[in-house]
Every structure is written in structure tokens, then in C-alpha cells.
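Following the same procedure, sequence and fold were stored together, as reproduced here:

>
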Amino acid sequence: MGIAYATKLLKTRQGSKSPLRLQITCSRIHKKLYSHKTGIVSLIGVLAHKLQNSSYSARDQDRAFIPATTFQSLFGHRTIDNIVYQISGPLDSQQAQRRVYEVLGKKKGFDPSDKQALSIWDTTEMDKFVYYFSLGFTLFMGLIGIMTLTVGGIGLANIMYVVVQERTAEIGVRRSIGARRVHILSQFLLEAFIIVAVGALIGFGLAALIIKGIAVLPYEDFVGDPVIDLQVALIAVLILGLVGIIAGFFPARKASRLTVIECLRH
């Protein structure tokens, strides 16, 4: 009795609760198995659903997968004429091909440098295009993010300069009753950080809402399941903190250097 993986299930034997007696619907393999009078195979698993933009003669959902030894005993084939292998990434394609030639050349006795010994269909060319396109798009969006943060930092600095100018009299009163420069500096830096933190919370909230909105759309097979990357979020927080320090430091330093006489003139 053979062992098979299938992606579609038809029915179970009457009264049977065991998943090992399920009849598979992979029609081609199913008909051939029964034409050889082998009986029902033992089904040990069902493949997860996946989106296929290409296939080898048929979709996986219409197939059953059996061990090579079971296939040999059923159909009599003793040699393998097709091997499908998967690499970790599109950039590893050439290295993987070299290793295939080296391993099979050593095993089958041909020169690994003879490219006519094997016929390899490289399906990663489109993957390479997608990889470099995604990389370029990511760098482009990163550049836009840097420019946005720069503009935001300039805006924050302008706001803090206006705040210092409007509160000059208050600064003079605080200095006259004993407030030190470090107290004035720390106060305005704290206010700058609060503004940055509020903006960051609003931004992360909007990002979470957008991600949840995309997740409910029926495009998961094409765009995947978007999530907030904690590493990217941490980097964004560090950058925002740096922007807050730079944008708030100079207005805060200006406020801390004001003398009581200068403040009282306002």
C-alpha cells in the first residue's frame, strides 16, 4: 500500500473516522493507482492551499505525491529524469546551479564544467527582477521618509523658536526667581520631545489602521499579510528621538541663554 499527500479530499469510507482511509481526488494519479489494482492508498497529509502562477503540467491541487520507491513499484521506472529544487533566494541561483553540477557530476561521472550535461530551467529570473524592484522601491521610500523627517524637524524647530519668543517674559520671571539655565533648557527639550511623541503615536496609529484595512482585503495571496516590523519601528523611534533632540536643542539653548534684562524688555 502506498503513501500519498493530496490537496483535495473527496470522501471517507462509511463509518470510518480515521484520516488514513480518505480517498483522494487527484484524478490522474487516482485512476492509474486503481488501474493497477493497488487499492486505496494511505493518505498521511493534506497540502496547504497555495497560489501557483506556474506549474509542471498540472496544479498541485490536482496531484497526489508518493515516495519514489512507491512510484517505482507501481510503474516500473528505475531512473529519475527530473529534479525540482528550491533555493533560499533569487540571488543564490548561480551558486546553486554550480553545486548541482558539482554534486551530480561527481555522482554520475561527468565534467561539472560541461553545461550540456544537464538541462536546467532557471525560474528565478522574474524573482530577481522583483527582488531588485522591491529593493529600489524600499530605498526610494526610505529617501522620502528621510526627507519627510527633515522637513518635520525644521517645522518643529520653527515652532519651538516661536514658543521661545512668545514666552520670553515667562523665562525672565523664572530666571529672576532663581531658575538656572539647565532648567530652562530641559523644559523646552521636554516640550519638543512631547510634540515628537504625540506625532509618532498618531503616525503609528494610522499605520496600524492601514495595515488592518489591507489585511481584510482579498489580496493576501498577492501582497501577503502586512505587519509592523518591530525592528523598523525601533529604528523609526530612534530617528524621531534624534530629530526631536536636534530640532529642540537650538531653540532651548537660545531660551536658556536669555538674560533677565533681555526678557523683561518684552
Observations:
- The first helix runs from residue 27 to 35.
- The mean pLDDT is 75.
- Residues 125-264 form one domain.
